[in-house]
Amino acid sequence: MALKGRALYDFRSENKEEISIQQDEDLVIFSETSLDGWLQGQNSRGETGLFPASYVEIVPAGISPNHADNSSSPADFSSTQVSLYSPSVASPARSGVGSGFLSNQGSFEDDDDDDWDDWDDGCTVVEEPRAGGLGTNGHPPLNLSYPGAYPSQHMAFRPKPPLERQDSLASAKRGSVVGRNLNRFSCFVRSGVEAFILGDVPMMAKIAETYSIEMGPRGPQWKANPHPFACSVEDPTKQTKFKGIKSYISYKLTPTHAGSPVYRRYKHFDWLYNRLLHKFTVISVPHLPEKQATGRFEEDFIEKRKRRLILWMDHMTSHPVLSQYEGFQHFLSCLDAKQWKMGKRRAERDEMVGASFLLTFQIPTEHQDLQDVEDRVDTFKAFSKKMDDSVLQLSTVASELVRKHVGGFRKEFQKLGSAFQAISHAFQMDPPFSSEALNSAISHTGRTYEAVGEMFAEQPKNDLFQMLDTLSLYQGLLSNFPDIIHLQKGAFAKVKESQRMSDEGRMAQDEADGIRRRCRVVGFALQAEMNHFHQRRELDFKHMMQNYLRQQILFYQRVGQQLEKTLRMYDHL
């Protein structure tokens, strides 16, 4: 049941899942159950979306929002205020909600006895790609209309803690502190990168994993995986459990560096994907194929998902950092149920995630001017925006062409074939003047064009589907970069602010140098990721275009052969 609410503070939305609210604005709250500290509702302008639970209060029934207590402050909330603020509140789009899989809120921890059973395949959520691209960090748009969109987490009514992050308390005591972003829900803050830049992320006593960045011919690049490998995805097989009550599809994965194949379901891919998003702050993680509620066992859908999982796996194994992730290796190699559960828990307890992941980088000693890095990032930002628009345009055109192949082209050739058949039948109406050979040739011509229509209908499976698969993958990769670039922009801003404070004598120069040094880490990582993206882009689009052109040539050769065979029937009339 919808509830009345009132905004306590201004909040500016940063993505398409969120809506902006203004202080004292009347709100409609769809459910008092929050998701990671976020509520869904409607503002006074009729916009529907998410906003922080800690920024609003629920107005008890019978009380007008305008008559609610207006004396609340950040340090003193009324007892009726919704207060689920957490220093580590994550954007729903970045925490995996958009994938329809509530990984961080108990779906795994409460599912220990079902590690090999269905975590997610029975979901009734349908997620289709938007024409305008995907949400923040690549998730499809939130679908919050289905039962169970929120976890079983009830609102807690308690005084709201101060808005200051705990990880910044130590630096707050130093007196000269670079200011923190007022919007505590920006991706720069909630990713932990702000805390890292300001030196608030504690160093670990022992860092078991390291990822190196080296200087290449085009600038910083990830150091190659010393043990490269590939992995095939094949043999999607329908299986059942509970005496046939529940069905699912398993995929055979065969890594080149492992002795035996493993069998995984989509829910296992989804678990891994959420781990990747949680850990790798500055890396564009490839998106999984979308889910589907109905028709999950139809041959076309299974084939489409397999093709896209193959592309996803290819990008994972080719990435110098993602391919070395322990959780990914566990996913590819574990055969034992008990070992799977142990490895799963170990991955979920990984401390080197988010901001702490940045501590694992070893960067080159070469000097880079931060202004040059900023200019390079701006260039890539403009490029990625243009590429995103172009990929969407090509995807739209290709999808329309598929529709024409399957529908319009087939029908038009069938009509043409039927018209030729009618001519042949008409010529048979006056037998003395009827030429059996000519009638047969014309009738065969009609059947040939009907066959050509069927060839057009089948052709997208050979070329356009593969093109759309690649474009879909890159739509997801490109949609990740605005948030990643925002992290670097935030880091640049902190460097400039700290240097100004140092020049004014309000900060020690060594403290400002530390901020600049940590900004270099983020800058090197982003440039390495940009470099890897370009390398993969060149390979993938070369392969995509070659495959499309080869298949087009073969297709029209087959059409030409059919027409030449028909033409020869007229040679000796």
Explain briefly what this protein structure is:
This protein is an alpha+beta fold and 573 residues long.
Overview features:
573 residues; SH3 type barrels; PX Domain; Substrate Binding Domain Of Dnak, Chain:A, Domain 2; five-stranded antiparallel beta sheet; three-stranded mixed beta sheet; 43% helix
Question: What would you note in describing this structure?
Answer:
Keywords: Cell cycle, Cell division, Cytoplasmic vesicle, Endocytosis, Membrane, Mitosis, Protein transport, SH3 domain, Transport. This is Sorting nexin. It comes from Marmota marmota marmota. With 573 residues, the protein is an alpha+beta fold. Among the domains are: 3-59, Roll (SH3 type barrels), CATH 2.30.30; 231-362, Phox-like domain (PX Domain), CATH 3.30.1520; 370-568, Arfaptin homology (AH) domain/BAR domain (Substrate Binding Domain Of Dnak, Chain:A, Domain 2). The chain has helices at 169-172, 187-190, 193-197, 266-279, 299-318, 326-333, 337-348, 370-427, 436-458, 464-503, 509-567; strands at 3-7, 26-29, 38-42, 48-52, 56-58, 211-216, 219-222, 231-241, 246-255, 262-265, 361-362. The strands form three sheets. The protein has a five-stranded antiparallel β-sheet, with no helix packed on it. The chain starts with a strand and ends in a 6-residue tail after the last helix.
SSE diagram, text form:
Layout: E1 3-7, E2 26-29, E3 38-42, E4 48-52, E5 56-58, H1 169-172, H2 187-190, H3 193-197, E6 211-216, E7 219-222, E8 231-241, E9 246-255, E10 262-265, H4 266-279, H5 299-318, H6 326-333, H7 337-348, E11 361-362, H8 370-427, H9 436-458, H10 464-503, H11 509-567
Parallel strand pairs: 6-11
Antiparallel strand pairs: 1-2, 1-5, 2-3, 3-4, 6-7, 8-9, 9-10
